[in-house]
Amino acid sequence: EAQEAPKDEL
Amino acid sequence: MNIFRFAGDMTHLLSIIVLLLKINATKSCAGVSLKTQELYLLVFVTRYLDLLYSYISLYNTFMKLFFICSSGCVIWYIREHKTVSQTYDSAQDTFRVLFLACPCMILALTVNHDFTVTEVLWTFSIYLEAVAILPQLVLLQRTKNVDTLTGNYVFLLGGYRALYLLNWIYRILTEPGYRQWIVWISGTIQTAIYCDFFYYYIKSWRNNERLSLPS
Predict the structure, then answer these.
(1) Phi and psi for B211 in degrees, rounded to 5?
(2) Which of B50, B108, B176, B195 is the most exposed, fewest CB within 10 Å of its CB?
(3) CB pair distance less than 8 Å for A7 and B63
(4) What is the predicted ipTM?
(5) Rounded CA gap, B210 and B46, in Å?
(6) Do A5 and B179 touch (CB under 8 A)?
(7) How many separate domains does chain B show?
(8) Residue in A2, A4, A8 closest to B56 by CB
(9) A1: distance to nearest CA of chain B, Å?
């Protein structure tokens, strides 16, 4: 399973 | 960072500046929900714990610190400021915040990516942000003739969420493998909560009338 997006949003 | 994300962040920033200006200039917090502001502070503190261990960019760090400090500042005004605190109507601002926070915590403990303290708190902050505006919307509904700046504040907050939706659509189309289901679903619910408010805000603006939400 692919990784979730990194926490780069606010 | 795409233009929608940046515009969303700037709208969020502007909403807080509008709120602080309103409170400072009129020395009144009439129509502002302390409960919503306290929920936002909780949202920002639990989400931005990563300030302590992860670095994305100077931009992100600055914005995170701004959001934490500004919501703390609004709370300080409402609770502590000599004149502003006297304009706070706690009898109208009666939303039970535990009815929001507890289910969000239970959901965060159940539906998350990783069962660690920071990940659960981050997930909690995403769920809580989706519903944190509810005490403010209920207070607006109880207030006849909503103050223009308070109306603008809520409109900008909703606008920020709508722009984040566009940001996600843009990212889905341009970044292969990009996905974040928890954020998307919560964010969509969060934006949907504003729909009713948007309708009456735009209607009052077009008719050149003071905003008042039907109860």
Answers:
(1) -70, 130
(2) B176
(3) no
(4) 0.86
(5) 36
(6) yes
(7) 1
(8) A8
(9) 11
> Going by C-beta distance under 8 Å and a sequence separation of 6 or more, which residues neighbour residue B99?
none
Mean pLDDT of B184-207: 96
Sort out which chain B residues have CB atoms less than 8 A from A10's CB and list them: 9, 12, 60, 63-64, 67
**Do the domain assignments include residue B215?**
no
Examine residue B214 and state whether it is found in any structural domain, yes or no.
no
Residues 1-10 (A) with a CB less than 8 A from some CB of B: 2, 4-10
**Is residue B59 included in any domain, yes or no?**
yes
Q: What is the largest CA-CA distance in chain B?
A: 53
- The span from the CA of B32 to the CA of B2, in Å, is 32
- Residues B40 and B49: their CA atoms lie apart, in Å, by 14
Domain for residue B127, yes or no?
yes
Dig out the tokens for B5 from the structure.
């994300």
Contact A4 B180 (CB under 8 A): yes
Q: Where does residue B177 fall: left (phi above 0), alpha (psi -120 to 50 degrees), or beta otherwise?
A: left
Six-digit token pair at B165? 């939706």
Cross-chain CB nearest to A10 (options B9, B54, B175)? B9
- pLDDT tens for each residue of B68-90: 999 999 999 999 999 999 999 99
B12 lies in which domain range? 3-207
Question: How many helices and strands, by DSSP H and E, does chain B display?
Answer: 9, 0
